[in-house]
């Protein structure tokens, strides 16, 4: 099985989307401070202001864990910030100005270089290939 650079970028995007789907972390005792809502018959058909929260599937969580625990340690801190900022949707000029201190063209080249290096490290390392989750 081979891995392409586009699949690695998609894995990071899936990990970012999965992070939004995971339940939020509460401080200890914060759950007990919530009000109990009692539903009755008059609530039927009422408009709920909270959007429906879709939970993450097991494959999405596997990709999330793979990115965090296996791919992130392979990157330097600067590369990590760059990859996650691009996954978040930050424009190239912002990444170049605030993270890498270079032009947007150089930022994109470094990003693609980091993704290619990740791809090569995955293909070379047998252990990383075995732990690679099923990609859609």
Low-confidence segments? none
Number of separate strands: 0
Mean pLDDT: 86
Q: Number of helical runs?
A: 6
Radius of gyration: 20 Å
Alpha carbon gap, first and last residue: 13 Å
Shape field: extended
Structural class: mainly alpha
Strand content: under 5%
Main sheet attributes: strand count, strand direction, barrel closure: none
Elements, N to C (H/E)? HHHHHH
Name the helicity range. Answer: 55-70%
Task: Provide an overview of this structure.
This protein is 58% helix and 0% strand. By secondary structure, the chain is mostly helical. It is extended, with a radius of gyration of 20 Å. The model has no long low-confidence stretch (mean pLDDT 86).
Q: Can you summarize this structure?
A:
With 136 residues, the protein is mainly alpha-helical.
Any chance you could write out the topology, listing elements then pairs?
Blueprint: H1 5-21, H2 58-71, H3 77-88, H4 92-100, H5 104-124, H6 126-131
Descriptors:
single chain; 136 residues; mainly alpha; 6 helices; 0% strand
């Amino acid at each position: 099985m081979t891995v392409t650079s586009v699949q690695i970028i998609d894995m990071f995007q899936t990990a970012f989307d999965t992070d939004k789907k995971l339940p939020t972390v509460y401080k200890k005792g914060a759950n007990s401070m919530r009000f109990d809502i009692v539903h009755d018959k008059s609530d039927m058909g009422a408009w709920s202001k909270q959007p429906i929260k879709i939970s993450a599937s097991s494959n999405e969580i596997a990709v999330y864990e793979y990115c965090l625990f296996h791919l992130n340690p392979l990157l330097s801190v600067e590369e990590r910030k760059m990859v996650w900022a691009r996954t978040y949707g930050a424009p190239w000029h912002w990444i170049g100005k605030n993270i890498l201190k270079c032009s947007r063209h150089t930022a994109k080249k470094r990003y693609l270089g980091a993704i290619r290096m990740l791809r090569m490290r995955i293909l070379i390392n047998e252990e990383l290939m075995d732990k690679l989750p099923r990609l859609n």
